Amino acid sequence: MVACALTIAGSDSGGGAGIQADLKTFSALGVYGASVITAVTAQNTRAVTDVHPVPDATVAAQIAAVLDDIRVDAVKIGMLGDARLIETVAEALEGYAGPVVLDPVMVAKSGARLLPEDARAALIAHLLPRADLLTPNLPEAAALLSCAEACDDFEMQDQGARLCDMGARAVLMKGGHGAGATCTDWLIADGVTRLDAPRIVTRNTHGTGCTLSSAIAAGLAKGLPLGQAVAAAHGWLHRAIRAADTLGIGHGHGPVHHFHEVWT
Question: Domains, the chain, ranges and CATH?
């Protein structure tokens, strides 16, 4: 039977992030994708112009419908807009025993906070302990810890360890918001693993966080150990970013090329 992964996230009408990026990633990596939509957004490569949250009961019903019928080998959680929805998702997943990858969508590229304080507290209380892997970027890790953003490798490792102490089983600290010729991620799990990649100069990086967490979930769904799933996803995303400029989608920050290994 084919591996199956479930994404719980918002919809991106521009197709570069959220549910659309997750399903493209699953398909590109040979995993069947099921989805639960938490919000409908009106957006393109330049801006988000409207957000319509899906009612909590409908989100819970979507999760129940999928889990009642389809064998789900891994779950990826993305955009959750408020505290009650976070609690709803946590409750709906109580009987699920597979791995969960939590991508804490908390800070927009503009720096604006996407989650109110009570939602941050709910995320920490209800979903962090459920996460087999938490995948924050530097602003998101700082927001979760109520501290300044990490400025070097030592601070990234320290913040990752502190997030593990708060309940996550493992943390991938993403260095995409850093500076320098090399982009460094740190996986804090049983030990500490450094993942380096040359930083690619491109404006087409929309959806990289969604794509990376989904690629990791795809690897876990196929039975890879966490470290192998993270390393494979890290390399695959680097190639997807490297091919992004060949797409020519939109006039702003375009998507990565999810199907770079299939067509150009």
Answer: 4-246 (3.40.1190.20)
